[in-house]
Fold this protein.
Amino acid sequence: MDNEKTQELVLKLLDIVTLLLQSQIGNTSPQEASKNSTDIDQSKLDLFQVMIDQINMKSDISEMERKLKTLESKMEQQNEELQKVIQFNRKES
């Protein structure tokens, strides 16, 4: 799933959670509703931070995969060079 679709799904989830929490607020006093509204905003921020962290982890993983492929390529090249040296040494001895 790409980042855009992930963001869309998370935003829809935030809307659903917000609606659920707001429906619960209707059953409380005005003082509690005000506190709950702040809690809802904090919950949205927390969920958004989780989404950002997941995107960053995916980006980090992609970067690590790229570095790993580069490293594998270098190792293969060094292995080929080593095999050539081994073959040369066998011929010389």
